[in-house]
Specification:
RNA-binding; 579 residues; 15 helices
RNA sequence: CGGCGUGUGGCUCAGUUUGGCAGAGCGCUGCGUUCGGGACGCAGAAGCCGCAGGUUCAAAUCCUGUCACGCCGACCA
């Protein structure tokens, strides 16, 4: 391939709407083009990257006995009605009518299609276990696409579904899949991907893991223990708090004019924020009934945790003067009967608290929840803090990091086989529901994440296993006959050896040629120029600048081949070293 | 869905306050000089100023409406 013919323009200026580097570089490098909100086309350079990622995935899926299939993008609503998700899933699911007026959906995930495909085939226990997977486009009408290809509405995903005749068999295969996923991310050149335990969300099921690529621009917060290796997402991380009891005091109602925030109250009463009780107010979506979460003043509420405990959807409350609650002065003592409240574990064991009095302009001092409330029970509804206590090893060593979710694996159980009535006959002639697992990887998101994790200010630094081309050959001064001849012949010889080369023989200035090469991001760069040729050599470098050598022209091809193998070997060593 | 912001050549943006010929740099086309980190000269092409209505002799600029997009939050297998 010649740069001169490569479809997709590279340019100098950072597009205004790009917030993260990978987005800006992939647009500037001619990898992708914006089409609409959360919708992008891939230029040839990116398509080559995603195709390589797909092939890495395909190989690993095949190696664990996966069989590739292809489900439709458009599915009849009836299939989603069977599982109940036609009703239960929100607006992310695009619903539409065809010309005859019957309801359809755009596939945003394919559990229904998977069950539909195999429920006649797999009626006998002898067919189990098996796994099917596809690599295909999905559409999810996300509320807020962002960060380029990291969070889009239409995207390519590898989704896999396994079917088993017992939980034990699923457990076994889940572990196999867990390892296959680790190999995929190692081979894609991102050893920084880690696994965390997670909450399974709308997919249902119990055990699940997310594969997170750690980066400060990630959308998800991850809790990591540096001491024992505990890893979890924020919702699944138990918050443990050990309070110094302090000395109990008498309960006192004090006038606190214009003290509506915890900071105001603590400053006014000269008390510590760690002995204050903060109220965060929500309302139930169903009937607008108030739900108040009380946490220690220095903690934040985790809404997902609270939602799970309340057991229904909630939203941030709007409090007006007519309501039973007095904004700014809400406390658990003398709490109005019309609302309900939850006490967070961070309040447990404090002998003397400052809290609102449920009366305009007043707070309580010396509140002791165990003593003053009829029954005080505590729940875990606060976000874990940096330096918090690890629920696993009990050391105060929790760190909070950001990450991008590039894959996930779930144990689905019988949620879909039951709702869609997929059964098999076991060796005793008895009918049973198969147990399912499902396994996803976002291909485009992984490509963008790799760019985010591996780039410098000039462009992506692609790992060789997924780079659009392995070698970029730059011919400075293509008008110089000798130089052009040398570069041409090297290009031909490398291509004959099966090496992927992108060849730049345009008559542009060196600066532009180097900038373009940086933006394309091929791991090996070869520079032919009159200057190098004076020493009968070409310059060979790596994109990450770890290698930079003048190599005699006649030895260049051999050197490049060796370097290429060395770079691949480095990736393989990640796979082997991974435990 | 809430808050904030932005729509002017392919890209980055000025011009809007105070209404008066549609602008710059990059990119693109041609010619020439250059050539190891986005050079320079000359000559060009390219815009219904998001859309619709209104005010005005005159609207990119003022008014009303609307659409789109972005950021923060909510939400999210």
């Amino acid at each position: 391939m010649k740069v001169a013919n490569l479809v997709g323009q590279r340019f100098k200026e950072r597009p205004a709407d790009c917030v993260i580097d990978s987005h800006a570089l992939m647009v500037r490098g001619g990898f992708m083009k914006y089409v609409g909100n959360g919708i992008y086309s891939e230029f040839p350079a990116l398509r080559r990257v995603t195709a390589k990622i797909e092939n890495i995935i395909r190989k690993e899926m095949d190696a664990i006995d996966g069989q590739e299939v292809l489900f439709p993008v458009v599915l009849p609503a009836s299939l989603w009605e069977e599982s109940g998700r036609y009703e239960s899933v929100g607006n992310e699911l695009v619903r539409f009518k065809d010309r005859s007026g019957s309801n359809h959906v755009l596939g945003m995930t394919h559990e229904e299609a998977a069950v539909h495909l195999v429920r006649e085939y797999a009626q006998s226990y002898t067919k189990y276990p098996f796994m099917i997977y596809q690599i295909q486009r999905k559409f999810r009408d996300e509320a807020r696409p962002r960060a380029g290809m990291i969070r889009v509405r239409e995207f390519t995903m590898k989704d896999a579904y396994s079917f088993h005749t017992s939980q034990e068999d699923l457990d076994k295969y889940y572990e196999v899949c867990f390892q296959a996923y680790n190999r995929i991310f190692q081979k894609a050149g991102v050893p920084e991907v880690i696994t965390v335990q997670s909450d399974s969300g709308m997919m249902g099921g119990s055990v699940s893991h997310e594969y997170m690529l750690l980066t400060p621009v990630g959308e998800d917060s991850i809790v990591i223990c540096d001491e024992c290796g505990y890893r979890s997402n924020m919702e699944a991380a138990e918050n443990q708090v050990i309070n110094n009891a302090g000395t109990a005091e008498e309960l006192e109602c004090i006038e606190t004019p214009d003290c509506k925030t915890i900071e105001d109250v603590c400053a006014f009463l000269e008390s510590d924020v760690e002995t204050s009780c903060k109220a965060v107010v929500y309302q139930k979506n169903s009937d607008d009934k108030f739900v108040v979460a009380f946490v220690r003043g220095d903690y934040e509420v985790n809404e997902t945790k609270l939602r799970n405990i309340v057991g229904e959807e909630i939203h941030t409350a709007v409090i007006t003067d007519e309501d039973c609650l007095t904004a700014g002065y809400i406390g658990p003592y003398n709490f109005p009967e019309e609302a309900e409240f939850y006490l967070d574990v961070s309040l447990k064991g404090i002998a003397s608290l400052v809290a609102g009095a449920n009366k305009e302009g007043y707070h309580y001092k010396g509140l002791n929840l165990e003593r003053d409330l009829e029954s005080a029970s505590y729940v875990d509804i606060a976000k874990v803090k940096e330096g918090g206590i690890c629920p696993c090893c009990q050391k105060p060593s929790l760190a909070i990091k950001r990450g991008i979710e590039v894959g996930n694996i779930f144990q689905l159980g019988t949620k879909y086989t039951k709702s869609m009535d997929m059964q098999y006959t076991d060796e005793n002639g008895k009918n049973n529901y198969p147990v399912m697992g499902c396994y996803g990887i976002g291909v485009g998101r992984l490509a963008a994440s790799i760019c985010e994790a591996h780039h410098d200010e000039y462009g992506p630094v692609w790992p060789i296993s997924i780079a659009p081309w392995e070698v970029q050959l730059c011919c400075l001064r293509a008008d110089d006959e000798e130089t052009k001849k040398t570069a041409d012949s090297l290009y031909n010889s490398l291509q004959n050896d099966g090496i992927e080369v992108i060849y730049d023989d345009r008559s542009v200035r060196p600066g532009e040629m180097f900038s373009d090469a940086d933006l394309i991001g091929a791991p090996i760069r070869v520079i032919a120029s009159p200057r190098n040729l004076k020493e009968s050599a070409v310059e060979i470098t790596t994109r990450d600048k770890s290698v930079k050598e003048l190599v005699p022209v006649e030895k260049a091809a051999e050197f490049i081949k060796d370097l290429r193998l060395k770079l691949f070997a480095e990736i393989d060593s990640h796979v082997e070293n991974y435990k």
